[in-house]
Amino acid sequence: MPKSKRAKLVSLTKVSKKTREHKNALLNEIQQSAEKWKYCWLFEVGAMRNTHLKTVRNLWRDSARIFFGRAAVMAKALGNTPEEEHRPGLHKLAEKIKGQVGLLFTDTEPQEVIEWFEDFRQADFARTGNIASRTVILPVGPVMRVYSDPPEPFPHNEEPQLRKLGLSTTLKRGVPTLDTSHKICDKGKALTGEQAQLLKLIGEKMVVFRVGLKVRWDSDTGVVTQIRGGAVSAEEQHGDDEDEGMDEE
């Protein structure tokens, strides 16, 4: 009788060894980047989506190196104290590494970096826990997909899904229709899973992916500079993201 794949035993020793090897490799890559590049930026992300972070990586591929996640590992690689820091001044940046943040190493001059990230914005669909940026009310009549141009009604075979998400629809001439208006969400309130799904179905993008620059380290001077106006608000950071956890390129 063949062995079941579900019954396969996995050696915890091998898993631990692989984890240690990955951690050490990441430490070395961060330290090598600190030696290679002139500047190191600490950044955080609003409405984290790996799809958009990959876009940032690709656009900077030839002129920067980006690491994201593993805050403790990144801080250790840079050095948490003056005695441990890999290069002068890095411990001042390391002590600010908390939460969901990343490192960007580059030779590009600071003003160009700041202007680029100020311009980079990607609208996306909200997820559970995100804060509604506006109140959305569906009017009486056919339920429309707002992302289509021009907007078009939902097909009849999607009415069960609409009803499952809380809409009191009826089929009129094969089109899911509301006899009374329906409020999906209120501005300023956290979204439930059903609300987030419904907003995505109708095509309402309510969050914006952006990279907020926090501080910058200069290898020539060892000075760490706070970046004004770059912080990401707590509301922007809310929301589940099944794609989190990317370490490096």
Features:
249 residues, alpha+beta, six-stranded antiparallel beta sheet, three-stranded antiparallel beta sheet, 8 helices, 23% strand, disordered N terminus
Please give the radius of gyration in angstroms: 23 Å
How do the helices and strands follow one another from N- to C-terminus?
HEHEHHEHEEEEEHEEEHEEH
Based on DSSP secondary structure assignment, what is the total number of beta strands? 13
pLDDT < 50 stretches = 1-5, 242-246
Average pLDDT for all residues? 88
Helicity level: 25-40%
Cα separation of the termini: 43 Å
Q: Helix segment count?
A: 8
Structural class: alpha+beta
The largest sheet, given as strand count, sense and whether it forms a barrel, is: 6 strands, antiparallel
Beta-strand level of the residues, as a percent range? 15-25%
Shape descriptor reads elongated
Q: Could you describe the 3D structure shown?
A:
- By secondary structure, the protein is of the alpha+beta class.
- Helices cover 31% and strands 23% of the residues.
- The chain is built from eight helices and 13 strands.
- It has helices at 12-36, 50-59, 71-78, 90-94, 110-119, 159-164, 193-202, 234-237; strands at residues 39-46, 64-68, 101-106, 122-124, 136-138, 141-142, 144-145, 152-153, 169-172, 175-178, 182-185, 207-218, 224-226.
- The strands form four sheets. Strands 1, 2, 3, 4, 12 and 13 form a six-stranded antiparallel β-sheet that branches. A three-stranded antiparallel β-sheet has the order 6-10-9.
- α1 crosses α3.
- The longest helix is centred in the first third of the chain and has 25 residues, at 12-36.
- The protein starts with 11 loop residues before the first helix and ends in a 12-residue tail after the last helix.
